[in-house]
Amino acid sequence: MKYCFLALFFLSQNLFAMSNPGKPFGQTPAGESVTLYTLKNAKGMEVHIMNYGGIIQKILTPDRHGKVEDVVLGFETLQEYIKDTPYFGAIVGRFGNRIANGKFTLDGKEYTLAAQNNGQHLHGGLIGFDKKVWKVEAASAQSLSLSYVSKDMEEGFPGNLRVKMTYTLSEDNELGISYEATTDKATVLNLSNHSYFNLSGNAKRDILNQEVQIDASRLVAVNKVLIPTGELTPVNGTPFDFTKPHVVGDRINDTSSEQIVLGGGYDHCWALDKPAGSYAKIATVHDPVSGRKMTVSTDQPGVQFYTGNFLDGHLTGKYGVQITKRHGLCLETEHFPDSPNQPNFPSTVLRPGEVYKTKTAYQFSVN
Ligand code: BGC
Q1: Where does this protein have coiled-coil stretches (predicted)?
Q2: Cα–ligand 1 centroid distance for 42 (angstroms)
Q3: Residue 318 per-residue DSSP state
């Protein structure tokens, strides 16, 4: 009898963990099944997420008239995500953004990574976390937990790394993303989500008329291959000053700014003003036409604000929309790019016995 109760207890725990079964979303070429989960709240907001790359495929949220539309770029099918994507909605890892020349030294040992982007490492390498099928740990109506074990030396990074992450949709239209990781050898780690937001709804316009505000008075200046020079430069008096809201398109082509020329627009990490390690609101995006507003909060030291400068129109996304330059914007909360080679930047080293823990939230409202 006792065992019977125990069995029922574990079964009910498991059923609770999987109270959202999701829907089959196809298979990878290796035959792994992918499932798409819909998180929903009572306000009519929905977030669709798959366990391939932990990709956020859709975020449906109302405009000021209550019209619910999609505010992220992406595709209708898994096959399109597998074939060619600029990281639409994906988790990037083991290391988000660039590492100079695909090399870093840790505890006196040099590690070599894929240098697939202009001779630089980008977003975890050739088969980063964005291209892995993650294990579904738990799925309910409003949350999804995924895990992935990255083997020692996968993509050149040391240590067996265990990552767990959870997406949670709240009743006040906030999508929370939390990550936890441990390693059995010292390694470097910089996880982020690479959603391209477009608050116009169903990507019907580019993002140039949208207003952005970032709580950062310094920019992580880059060189011509978008690797940090090591300098944090004041944004005051430059097109990078978003301490007050600014229309994205206003200064994006201001070629009197060397950093604008180097980035081809905005493709930089802002060094956030909030105290190190604290969790705070750090940025907002507002679309004056639809009224949709997004507020970003994080405990990370930086945010990569990327305006889709490399989107060149060769991809067609959901709703049959051709994805052209500046059709979406990313606010990737993270540590500064190239931190493993920059002794003055906050450290991205994770050692055995330590727990990497971080959270970010995107909250949607209207104004
Ligand atoms: C990078 C861009 C890159 C994009 C897609 C962003 O995080 O900063 O330079 O093109 O990701 O890979």
Answers
A1: none
A2: 34
A3: G
Give the separation between CA 338 and CA 306, rounded to whole angstroms: 16
CATH architecture, domain 2-366: Distorted Sandwich (2.70)
Domain boundaries in the chain? 2-366
- Span 69-93, mean pLDDT? 98
Report the predicted TM-score, pTM, of the whole model to 2 decimal places: 0.95
194 catalytic, yes or no? yes
pLDDT, tens digit (0-9, with 9 covering 90-100), for 150-166:
999 999 999 999 999 99
Phi, psi of 80 (to 5 degrees): -65, -35
Q: What does the pLDDT look like over 213-268, one tens digit per residue?
A: 999 999 999 999 999 999 999 999 999 999 999 999 999 999 999 999 999 999 99
Residues 271-297 have pLDDT tens digits of: 999 999 999 999 999 999 999 999 999
Please name which of 253, 105, 120, 115 lies closest in space to residue 186, comparing C-alpha atoms: 105
Q: Is 183 helix (H, G, I), strand (E, B) or coil?
A: strand
Contact indicator for 63, 173 with CB cutoff of 8 Å: no
* Beta carbon of 332 within 6 Å of any ligand 1 atom: yes
Per annotation, catalytic residue among 69, 154, 211, 332:
332
Active site residue: 194, 268, 286, 335, which one? 194
Task: Please state, as a whole number, how many other Cβ atoms lie within 10 Å of the Cβ of residue 115.
Answer: 18
